[in-house]
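anyone seen this seq b4? input:
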Amino acid sequence: MRNYEGVFIIDPDISTEASKGVLGQLQELISKNGGRVDGIHEWGKKRMAYKIRKRHEGHYVLLNFQLDTQHTKKLEQSLRLNDQLLRFLLINKEGK
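predicted toks r here
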């Protein structure tokens, strides 16, 4: 398993409970694909450099996790289908 870091921008217009639900979904997706979540850091609501889907702000979350490389494509496809995520970026921390 490789170490990954994911930055997620969640829609700021949804309620706090709904954003917690999105975090739960992210954790569930990772664990379903055989991964493990090592840490969650909520950065809170921040102003973005440019509009995404007509929004100026987003709720930022940093997620550290471990996942096999063959499951990253499945994870990315599932993340693209989530309408409550404005953007996401997954980075392999090992750099290989």
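Residues 33 and 71 are 6 Å apart (CA to CA). The two ends are 12 Å apart (CA to CA). kinda curious what u guys think
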